[in-house]
Amino acid sequence: MDVGRPGRMDGRFVAGLWREHLARAVADWVGTGGRPPGLAVVRVGEDPASAVYVRQKATAARAAGFLVEDMVLPEDTSMERVQEVLRDLAARPEIDGLMLQLPVPPPLDADVLLEDIPGEMDVDGLGIHQAGRLATGVPDLPPCTPAGVMELLRAHGVNLSGARALVIGRSRIVGRPMAQMLLHADATVTVAHSRTRDLEALVASADLVVVAAGRSGLIKGAWCSPESVVVDVGIHPRREGGLTGDVDWQGEVPRVQAWTPVPGGVGPMTVAMLLVNTWRAHGRREGHAPLEAPYAS
Ligand code: NAD
Description:
This protein is of the alpha/beta class. The relative contact order is 0.18. It is built from nine helices and 13 strands. Strand 10 (236-237) and strand 11 (243-244) form a beta hairpin. The protein is globular, with a radius of gyration of 19 Å. The strands form four sheets. Strands 1-13-9-7-5-6 form a six-stranded parallel sheet. Helix 1 (11-31) packs parallel to helix 9. The longest helix has 21 residues, at 11-31. Helix content is 38%, strand content 16%. The structure holds nicotinamide-adenine-dinucleotide. The site of nicotinamide-adenine-dinucleotide (NAD) has 24 residues, from helix 9. Nicotinamide-adenine-dinucleotide binds at residues 145, 168-171, 173-175, 192-194, 196, 199, 212-215, 218, 233-235, 266-267, 270.
């Protein structure tokens, strides 16, 4: 596998570059009389992990100079009420990007609710419009986590053309769009899921492994080829505090070409890509160009 900058892929650092780059663009825009980008995040219920993620997103967006509407609805909010809130936010002229933090508590139906987010404001990229654009090869606002993975790979000069990429997981949020993005980047993509047999052999033969199974320690470091690049999307609280991922490095320094830590790998990139998408949605209304990457490919 051809990797320009091997080693640990520091998502905190790369996301920081994007956030500073964005903050400068916003300051320049607002400094010349422009309207700041507006992001609305709707959360339903008190899921503690969701509360942390929304706080991270809101803090990062405010730090970059965005206007942020951070709305929390009670656990027992009806479908109709959530839909009404989404429609009201979508109609506000100062809001460019609108997202619903998932998961939503039952019996709310996330698939139905996502359809109340207009495609051009869907900065999480999860609705049918944006998912359809990605699937047909004309991405616009791509889902933030896989977009963050792609940027981290780009920042580290990982050459995906012709690479054997294995995506573990096929969710709407991560695995499925991840596979499509890798396909667009000319990788040869295999998607593994809960019914896949002999994961170990698939991992061993892959140049790039993106693990998004949501199973702590599912993949063993020893399975991975020393020539491979391994991206761990999983996030799990550790019993002793802190976070761990889907890859178990078995207490050793990863013996692969490049890898992401948990925490500090994909998570911060997800937040940065949400801001990048919001800036893009804002630019379409206000007439400015999307941001170029703050580093050479
Ligand atoms: P999900 O539960 O919706 O999907 C998991 C996928 O993994 C499913 O498609 C399933 O088929 C597959 N899977 C489950 N067990 C498997 C097994 N034994 N072998 C192979 N495949 C298996 O989860 P998700 O929303 O895609 O999230 C996955 C993980 O990524 C979770 O740990 C989540 O917390 C994390 N996550 C991280 C970020 C981030 O920013 N870092 C963002 C979103 C999700």
